[in-house]
Amino acid sequence: MRILITNDDGINAPGLKTLEAIAAELAGPEGEVWVVAPAFEQSGVGHCISYANPTMISELAPRRWAAEGSPADCVLAGLHDILPARPDLVLSGVNRGNNAGENVMYSGTIGGAMEGALQGVKSIALSQFLGPRNVTMDDPFESAAAHGAQVIRRLLDHAPWGEGEDYRLFYNVNFPPIPAAETKDIVIARQGRRQTAGFAMEGQVSPTGRRFLWVRGSEQAVDTGPGTDVTANLEGHISITPMRADLTAHDVLSDLEAAL
């Protein structure tokens, strides 16, 4: 198996090392794992591509490249310039922090997997929820490291992938904020929505008198209701959410047509 991996935390991120180990286990001794990851952190860039600017790439080691661009740029670089042939699988992550609920809309990790799916390759995003019970562990990614390969194998062996559809399926996997030994089985969940203020801006004046704005996050440990990804993670489960890049509100089409 040939696997392309990327992330949004950057080429030196510890979560990428976790994903490299997962990918190596999946690929096996006869397989190939290719890393094409951002040279610098790209958290929050979503599905951004560097359409108006060139992307500089550098080979750091065999099958290991850094790109001065977004996760989606990295997937495009891997598919169209770096890899000798198309991969069988694109993996994006393991993100430091959850990409559940509304976080999905901002996530570069999701953007990397989405681009893989748009390019017709089976793609999975993986993220590690952080909380009081794992953030100070020697390995905060322990749950993802222990269970990641098995989860991906189950998806590859049993999940639909939407071949032939305009917008292929990809999968969003979040591991709970607890030790690996206490991690519960998979829950198939819809994307939740935390009923909090969400992201905001906070102003600050520098010593030189210039004003800067910082993006401020919100509380993450918020129950989002039964059947949702955030709640499944907070209850100790691995969540899997099937996704597509199609943003059409299909449930509204007929009502809107009737109304207009």
From TrEMBL:
Binding site for a divalent metal cation: D8, D9, S43, N95
GO cellular component, one term: cytoplasm
SUPFAM superfamilies: SurE-like
Record text on cofactor binding: Binds 1 divalent metal cation per subunit.
Keywords annotated in UniProt: Cytoplasm, Hydrolase, Metal-binding, Nucleotide-binding
Catalytic activity: a ribonucleoside 5'-phosphate + H2O = a ribonucleoside + phosphate
Location of the Survival protein SurE-like phosphatase/nucleotidase domain: 3-196
Annotated InterPro entries: SurE (IPR030048), SurE-like_Pase/nucleotidase (IPR002828), SurE-like_sf (IPR036523)
Subcellular localization: Cytoplasm
Record carries keyword Metal-binding: yes
A Pfam family: SurE
EC numbers on record: 3.1.3.5
GO molecular function, one term: nucleotide binding
Reported cofactor(s): a divalent metal cation
Source organism superkingdom: Bacteria
Keyword Hydrolase: yes
Functional description taken from the UniProt entry: Nucleotidase that shows phosphatase activity on nucleoside 5'-monophosphates.
Listed HAMAP family: SurE
Protein's UniProt name: 5'-nucleotidase SurE
Organism: Celeribacter persicus
Gene name linked to the record: surE
